[in-house]
Model the fold of this input.
Amino acid sequence: MTTSKTVSPVVLKKHGEIAVLTINNPPVNALAKEVRISLATCLESANQDPEILAIVLCGSGKNLCGRADIREFNTPDREVKPMSRDLMNLLEESKKLIVAAIHGPTLGGGLELALGCHYRIADKLASLGLPEVQRGVIPGAGGTQRLPRLIGLQPAIKMITSGLPVDANEALNLGIVDLISTSDLLSESIAFARNLIANNSEPKRISAMKIEGSLEENTKLIEENRLLLKKNSPGLSAPIHALESIRNAVMMSFDEGWKAEAELSRISMASDQSRSLVHAFFAERQIHKIPDISSDTILRPIKKAAIIGAGTMGGGIAMSFVNAGVPVTLIEISSENLANGMSRIESNYKASIKRGRLTEDEMSRRLSRITASTNYADMRDSDIVIEAVYEEMDIKRNVFKEIDRFARGDAILATNTSTLNVNEIALFTSRPESVLGTHFFSPANVMKLLEIVRADRTSDDIVASVMAMAKEINKVGVVVGVCDGFVGNRMLAPYFRQGDFLVEEGAMPQDIDNVVEEYGFRMGPFRVSDLAGLDISWAIEKRRAETRPLDERFSPLLDRICQLGRYGQKTGAGWYLYEEGRKAVPDPVIEEIIFARSHEMSLNRRIIEDDEILQRCLYSMINEGAKILEEGLAIRSSDIDVIWLHGYGFPRHRGGPMFYADLVGLRNVCDTLDKFHKEWGDKWQPSGLLRSLADSGSSFGEWDKKQIKK
Ligand code: NAD
Done:
């Protein structure tokens, strides 16, 4: 090493005749405008230095280069020259050979940067990909033009339209990289560059390559992929735009395709889908910030868990822990129930083995982490005790008294109740400050969402520790307050109510499901209810009947269907008929029940437009969400979005219900709610918060920002 010149945040160092350019922009070396400017300057210096014969481009820290800087999306900074796409061309046009040294996650703009280089070496742990479609945009810095030229059309379509990364070995097989480093990446990259010089190798410029295959074969392949995308990702525009851009790579010269890519990239970036997906990305990062709990709160380590009750939920919760390597003591009321619970867990694992997702060995390892017991004393050494017994206050009272007796003094005590008051449950113990709700979703081993229910007296470190635990066991933890149904189910209730009312007034279940599915949900409210089991909602409804105000509109349709023993898919019939497995078929029996109900209400059934169906389903839940915010039961509107994205299948490309309301405009939402209120009274009155935000031209997003500043 001789001389050195520093141009932050890219550093140029001379290693004899090789210039090493190191990107240094923690945490992920994103291509922010400062990095782009600095890299272009260093490149120019290296190219003008007569002592330099080749260049190695590498990254400090975790990776070569993470991606374009997502914070620059939809801001003028993104346009600052050189833009990422110009930078890749500058690299490619360099007269001196450039070798990209790739380590860590090299994604999006990072991989496009490497594709602008002439050769690529990857560390064996590197991952490479173009995940832009997952944020609703397309690779816009030459990725859609260079990758198909380098690796062929079909592999490039797969990588770009799925957004999924490949590991170093696959990258080598596909031809994305020329070599995998086996020891020190930088030394090997320098040696590789010297070797190229010694062999008088020419720069390999991908833009000059031709895509393999005839025009006819390639256009056919594109059309086949277009059909597949429409089927597998309905409604998503970014994969289709990406495919269009790849098609340009087939049909046009590099320069033309590159220009057209910029336009497609601009269109996708300006789309509501991209804004929604970027919102979802940031919303998921926000959940960890709990304004009144300091980030340096000392956490209680959770290395062992006890779960009381090995039923549907207890079994799934136990699996979540042992899947993440945390041992569990599973405690049941009787040996028989315990054996049943254990065999359900085992058969769940066996189903995964059958699908090729788990090995026998791994299943044995996971099962060996569960200690089954019928003795409460066996919870003694656990850091957290989670109760998942029947949903009855008296039973919970007895169980929590036992937990209080046997759990360690510093243990976290949690209930998985979905409808009971966590404040009341906490008072069954002598240590209410140690109690909180952990509301897992069914199936608990699969569903990502965990509502972390902070009760009135729960101590801060307990909340913070369970947030950290959620991450450890691969859940998305969101802090919520105590209220009926917490956040998710409380908002679900008005959404389902509207479904029933729409049916009474003129729509059929399939009309509503179709509209909601067209919007992007995988299943509408009626198909979901049939899948979950109508008996569960029936039981909740019966319990609530005692407290329901007499003048409140109520639909008895669920009652009537359940009275026929139709509990949904599991009984072969519910709102629909299921004669062929899971295929929901409209049933004349249901039609008759619905028509009779409309008649009994003296309602003239009418044709209900799709817009009205969608607004009534979504705005009822949004209004409830606004009330939840107003009551301080969720920290941010974006937390509510995360709950709906991970617990209820809200379409990610819509961002979540509250973000969707912002996109529609709160003025529009509020006016529609007023109109509905005038027409149906009932619960349509807009929440005070929603109205005041609408009146001041604000949004839930703006409201969130103010909460953080408080
Ligand atoms: P479940 O009926 O499937 O299982 C309850 C289990 O608790 C049974 O195996 C029973 O033997 C056991 N049990 C009862 N009393 C016990 C005691 N004193 N000591 C030890 N074990 C005892 O019920 P579930 O569906 O797993 O629900 C459990 C809890 O989770 C409930 O509070 C429910 O509201 C909540 N929850 C359920 C769902 C869901 O979809 N099923 C979703 C979220 C939350």
Observations:
- The chain has a mean pLDDT of 95.
- Residues 284 and 642 are 6 Å apart (CA to CA).
- The pocket of nicotinamide-adenine-dinucleotide is lined by residues 308-314, 331-333, 337, 341, 388-391, 395, 399, 416-418, 440, 442 (CB under 6 Å).
